[in-house]
Specification:
alpha/beta; Rossmann fold; Dihydrodipicolinate Reductase, domain 2; 2 domains; eight-stranded mixed β-sheet; six-stranded parallel β-sheet; 13 helices; 14 strands
Amino acid sequence: MTTEPLSVALIGCGRIAGHHCRSIAEVDDVELAAVCDLEFEKADAYAKESGVPAYANYREMFAKHPEIDIAAVITPSGMHFEHGMEMVKEFSKHVIMEKPTFMRPGQLLDAFGAADDAGLHIFPVFQNRHNKAVRRVKQAIDGGELGNVRIVSVRVRWCRPQRYYDMAPWRGTFSHDGGALTNQSIHHVDLIRYLGGEVSRVNASMRTLGADIEVEDTVAATLNFEGDSVGIVEATTAARPDDFEASISIVGSEGLAQIGGIAVNELQVFTPDPGACAENSEDFQGIKGHGAVYGFGHTQMYRDIVGFFRDSTPYPVSREDCLGTLKLLHAFYRSDEAGGWVDVAGEGESERLGRADEAISDLYRTPQETETP
């Protein structure tokens, strides 16, 4: 890696791609080199906004821009593993991997192993860890302000009507999307561990209540942490007519912390210091052009990546950390499949989540030959 600004290319230009473009523009020592999407019009829109070239074929893009250091994979979730492995093995690029990183824990191990062999790095995206409210509660837990964690409660009450799932073939599928827990609530699954500690076992019940899809849009679950604390998860995209809440609360032996808002962006209750609520809350609704549910955390993520390469500062989401979140995610599905409690530890994976579907994958594969749109 040279002392030149880190060069990033976007692979996939869905809604969150614009958020990456604008976040990159706010960070020193990193720059956007190009954007790519199989639907050239999508890439071209972001390219014009950012003043970079657009491509419909990343093979052509990498051939024309050998200076690219990092590929940000923002393709459908079920394509993350295949695309990530291509970035590492075929193009020797570091990889930023959007949520849920990979669909299966085994894929994560294989991808990180391939990156190790190639001397490259994978950076998982869990941007909500950077929210002010989350940072303040994490500080309180680590510093003992809340005492011992007793109960962790998650509520996600969002609206995803049928038209949302009809937007693309991958949506609402177990192979390439996952439901309310994997797509919309993956950050809360991550925050359960980040704030509450490791979970030992879960008992989940999943339903599909608000749309004609194969995946769950509603989940109710209980969980036991390592130790004596317990947790509750309520997550749905069947709320109507709009998104209402995405919250997590921590009941400790010395106090209560509740983070709410549209995307865990408001510190609503903090008994150790009630005056800290206002200064540790953010208005995500007011983020011009960024999308309220994404927040500001991607900007810090890019700063973290710059720090990793420039100062050898450890990236805050390690392989083991990310693996723990994926194993917890799969435990919820395994519990629903088993009809009862399951242990989070072990090698088990869901029978459904991330299963192969070559017909859908073929829709999102880039042809081997170079094509110019």
